[in-house]
Fold:
Amino acid sequence: MSDETPCAFCEQPKPLQVSHVVPSFVYRWLKDTSATGYLRYGQRPNQRAQDGLKCELLCRDCEALFNGWETPFALNLFHPYHSRTTSRFEYKSWMSKCLTSICWRALIDLQRQGNLRQLNVNFGSDVDAALLTWKAFLREERRDIGEFELHVLPLDEIAETDGDSPPRIHRYLLRAVQIDRIWTQQSAFVVVKLARLLVIGFIREPERAFWSGTKIDLETGAIAPGLMSVPNCLLNWVAQQAERISEIDATLSSRQEAKIQATVDMNPERAMQSETMAALAADIRLSSRQADHNLRSNRKSMDG
Structure:
């Protein structure tokens, strides 16, 4: 009998690849459009990285299967959306397969890292059911994903807001890559942020009326401008993650700050044309609009 660790997907004892949890094309785009050409993780902001987080999860055959869904997703949605070449994105069954595989990998990774302990108190059986359902769908052992729906929230620059937003909100909305879990007393989700696309996999959601315009069909559909709504718990989570960027930035050492500046100085044209700088500019614009809004509100209060 082979002593090799079974592949998490096909469950066969085969040599495991060092697999990306988030598809590698996302990290390539992040590096290619950055001001410096390097990555930094929130857990280790003082250490440069060349690639995204990986784990031993899949065999070579299953990695190739997943790549077959990721390629059309990258070509037909991820890259066109991030390059702003069009506003309507039609998709076929590769969309549901790719997003299911991403949510499945993310939830397994969170589980293996011990990050589901609190969520498991109330939703442990739902986590197990989601993983089994998504795997069966990907293996074509079932034709649907039941209650474990997939949703996508496209992100863009905030045009206006009634209140104050975190100072680095666009640097989070437009640039961050992340996997996490969200839960309330009744609901639980796995979330995977692919820069300007936020993918949500339902673990348990009895309040589906709060979701509108974001659900991904299993066969064919389109992502296009229109009215979308999501529950407050998701919006609050986004705001909290944006606030964390300020906390992470505060831990950056002076040595690393100097290294970043030196890299920018070596190629200032790249830095100025980067998506990193575009996100920073969006934060500055929003801050200015918020300041104007607050000033007008104060004047109205004084006039009253």
